[in-house]
Amino acid sequence: MRYEILGTLRVVDRESCRTAAGKKFETVLATLLIRSPEIVTPEQLTMEIWGVRPPGRASAGLHVYISRLRKFLLSQDRPESPVATSPSGYTLRVGDDEVDFAEFLQLVERGRGHVRDSRFAAAAQCLDKALGLWRGPALGGHGSGPITSGFITRMAEARLEGLELMADAQLGLGLHRELVGRLYSLTSEHPLCEAFHRQLMIALYRSERQADALKAYHVARTTLREELGVEPGRALRELQQAILHGDHRLSPSAALTS
Questions:
Q1: 138: which of 26, 33, 131, 199 is 20 to 30 A away, CA to CA?
Q2: Mean pLDDT of the chain
Q3: What does the chain look like in DSSP terms, one character per residue?
Q4: 174-258 architecture in CATH?
Q5: CATH number of 2-95
Q6: pLDDT in tens, 86-124
Q7: What pTM, to 2 d.p., does this model score?
Q8: How buried is residue 3: exposed, middle or buried, by Cβ count under 10 Å (0-12/13-18/19+)?
Q9: CA gap 231, 236 in Å, rounded
Q10: Which residues pair with 86 in a beta bridge?
């Protein structure tokens, strides 16, 4: 059985793919998945399902959802439900290989190490597999409780890191011309992320587009000043000066600008 949460929540069991029916029921499964193998208390689940104003029979309602979840997760390969009850709360027993976001985080960590060691081909392979696990925003972008909403934010940030690392790996492989279009899209989607602006400037400069690289800097600077009232960080400022002076360290054969 495989749990997929990088998109709308679904459970894949052999040839079948099932979704949790009902928002509250889905929230129970999602919360237990996110916290696995830790115990989730009834109070935490109540907060995730109903917020700060739970109904009078919230405890009984929670028991109903847990009972439904046990039946929902039964399969031919696992006749016993993975949902365990303890005096403190509930636990969903899963292995890392059964959850897509755990696999994603492992692949990103591996890719990060490869980029750090300048093993760009291996990094690109890991990161391509990691980013391919995404089918949309984590949990479909829906999570109102502290656990689910915090998870959505965490995974969105992890995906951004994966995209940044992937661009670094591709720049290291000399794929600067192929990257330009993608980096223009990323700077539009994430205009306050200086890393994407930096990578776009490098890709443009290495594609013999010095003027466009400098224009990209001015776009980043204008955006940061208008949105946040700040100047670009040191890395962007130093990159602009390096481009102006034709620094040989920016050549495709040189190490990536940090």
A1: 199
A2: 93
A3: -EEE-SSS-EEEETTEEEE-SSHHHHHHHHHHHHHTTS-B-HHHHHHHHHTTS--TTHHHHHHHHHHHHHHHT--SS--S-SEEEETTEEEE---GGGBHHHHHHHHHHHHHHHHHTT-HHHHHHHHHHHHTT-SSSGGGG---SHHHHHHHHHHHHHHHHHHHHHHHHHHHTT-HHHHHHHHHHHHHHSTT-HHHHHHHHHHHHHTT-HHHHHHHHHHHHHHHHHHHS----HHHHHHHHHHHTT-GGGSTTSPPP-
A4: Alpha Horseshoe (1.25)
A5: 1.10.10.10
A6: 999 999 998 766 999 999 999 999 999 999 999 999 999
A7: 0.91
A8: buried
A9: 10
A10: 89
pLDDT at 253: 67
pLDDT of 258 strictly over 50: no
Over 60: is that where the pLDDT of 256 sits? no
